[in-house]
Amino acid sequence: MNCPKCGAKNKEKAEQCSACEIYFIKWLIAQHRRDEKRLKSKKPRRPAWMIYSAIAGALIIGTILGLRTGRRSLEATDAFEAKLFKDLSEVPLDGILTDARERGKSFGVSISKRDLRGFVLQGVGAFNIPYLRVEARLAGEGPEIEDTTHASYKEFKRTPYRCVLYGKRGYYTFLGKEVAEASECWTLGTEGRIENKLMVTYYVWERLQWVESTQQWALFSPEQQRRFYRSFIERNYNADAVRQDTLESKALFLEVGSSLRKKRSALAVAFRTRARRAGAMYRLNHL
After folding, report:
1. Cβ contacts of residue 62 below 8 Å, gap of 6+?
2. What is the pLDDT of residues 105-149, one digit of tens each?
3. Is 44 left (phi over 0), alpha (psi -120 to 50) or beta?
């Protein structure tokens, strides 16, 4: 074979050139890397604002997608949030914006739906398993739990479901029709608990229930999901939270100076809870 660098003839399958003493594989890898760098340097660079916008968009979308619960009963939430992220026109915010205009007059600033977008999505995103689980326990309807060890969690996390089917326990990667006739099913997960003022992660099996209306195993039935979500909304997006927003907004206006951007942010904070509640109620009405 001929050396790719100097062209000298070498024995077949030789690893090193007898003339220039390069190692063929190392030289080829280095050459490939140089070619890659050369190609990248020729590509036109995007303006910095485009890069930052792409990163910000990816972070927001990642946060939304991070709300996925892994439970089939909530899979539709992702598609719903993706659609809502693009268009907020269906969420009733007119009353909030009217009050915002009145409040903003004295500060010479106004806000639009775009300024409330993040808060609306937070309300929508509150429809997830962790929050529903809390509300279920407060209502005395939380699923039965079995603690497990870290070693067991690592062993079964690739098969996060265990079911008793025809009297025999098995472990599954997902809950399909093959376990529809199981006598019981559990799902593996983690749970944060406060111990000595510190958050400790526990690994647990949670018992699922068979939901006749959907013909599938789930932590909660659709009726429970609606009830627990409404309970979450009433406990967190209430009049007390609105008053706290108003106080925080007043404090922010004392610090913003002449910055129009900061003034808009301060004004939006005054309507944070109301926007979250609007998003949450819109999601609740579309369950």
Report:
1. none
2. 989 999 999 999 999 999 999 999 999 999 999 999 999 999 999
3. beta
